[in-house]
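Review box. Two proteins, two foldings.
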Amino acid sequence: MIFLLVMSIPLFSFCQNPNTTNDMTVNIKANDPGSYDIKRAEEEWKALLGPNSYYILRKAGTERPYTGEYFDNKQAGIYYSTATGQPLFISDTKYDSGCGWPSFFEPIVPGAVFYRTDRSHGMIRTEVVDSRSGSHLGHVFNDGPPPTGLRYCMNSGAMTFVGIEEEPPALVKEYMASLASEEEKKAVEAFKLKNEK
């Protein structure tokens, strides 16, 4: 039992942020309104997401470092919320932070995510959720590269990656057709045009 407790500490302290202080908040104000455009009953979320993604997105879970599908993905493409189909990050902003989770220095558009203050596990962190359903994606830290100095440490299980030449899944197509803002549509199109062969 003691061994298990000791082994769980590095999962949050080393990989989530190498700082020694318990206050890991960044200079971003919490702006989560608590009300979202996309709402589902918990049973619907469970059926839509599957066990791993449900645990991460709806229960604020965290996958183990270096185990997620996208932590080492170097393909060109867009990362969408597995909960909503909403575009979140582009591969141009992804970098290897060495933490074992997919890391980005900024979202595809500023309104793609909301921020919450997370006081779990004896730390104070800034939680990142998708702005359309409030589903948990990961955390953001202030130890990232230029130009933002931020590290969006995301869970692979919270995202769906679509490569530049791949057909998006139905959830993404539905979101882009009926819910995407003009800013989101322009950002997705600009990325695709930039990466056309």
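Next protein.
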Amino acid sequence: MYKIVQMVPALGWGGAQVFCIQLCNEFAKKDGYEVTLISMYHHDPQKHLPLSMLNEKVKFITLGKKPGIDPSMFLKIYKTLKNIRPDVVHTHLHAGYYCFYTYLRLKYSYKRVHTLHNLAKEDAPPHGRKMFKYFFKRNIIEAVTISEEVHKSALEEYGAYIKTLIPNGSDEVKPTAALQETTQKINSLKKDSHTKVLLNVARITKQKNQKLLLDVMRNLTGENVIAVILGDYVADDKTVYDELIANKPPNVYFLGKVANVSDYYLNADAFVLTSIFEGLPISLLEALSAGVVPVCTPVGGIINIVTKNIGFLSDDISEASFLQALKNYLHSDEAIIQTLKSNGKALYNKEYSMQSCADKYNALYHSA
């Protein structure tokens, strides 16, 4: 039995966590593989992704991490991995540096992989990056970047020890049993059958910069268009959320977190992302799989995907620039829009499916 452990701090509502669940599920489909997902924090159904997203073959373990720095995690992770004795330990986000102690003590031969889900300086704090460099340099951990821009940032931060780039993948968006209900909900928000629906799927944070979307939508009140925002906020970002709600124009709707995000993609005309920085958003890949045209800011791995034959990029993250990008979309000929949708789906099928992504990780896991 080939044993794979994926580890995250917690299954919060974020792209990296969705990616991790989908990657676990893809490996669970393979004969001869045993997949374990470890969450350092206990799972909170009110705050975290539903465990129903996990394939029933995936073992799920929580370690009860306390908020902030929790030194007990080092020994808990060591004991847990020693007991499992995995062939691969694949970490994501801040779980990476909680494994350092285990990697120094657990001496048998096994693969250690860490995926950088964001630009290097945003992916870990200074002390974390310093430790990662030590482990990357000694070939104890193999670093994986998720886009060309993330790879460049990692080379600048860590040097030539960064060698592997595996673009993110995602499951294809498919309708759920709630599609009809969701369609009715979206239709109730539209002015008429010709209203364009812009969809933003992202946590409510300064990074995702929903303020820019609101500012731009305020300038589009004369257009037949609405924006629907799906996402929640963590406690530290409540002030950001409160300010957005207080200054929300009438053509923007905050619908919070929903379990059937796919149905909203299938009711959207365009996918909008106004981030200040990014790695390679899972939400963007999901939008492409659903045939939804992206309109985004030119940050991180987005620029490697949203070319002129796929969607619309603003020149920068200013209000004027993003407003122009949205106008370019809204005033495009329908034939052009249909071509962009078709191109986006084709690109997803060729490069960004979860099956393709998992196959690349599988090859990495088995490499010398």
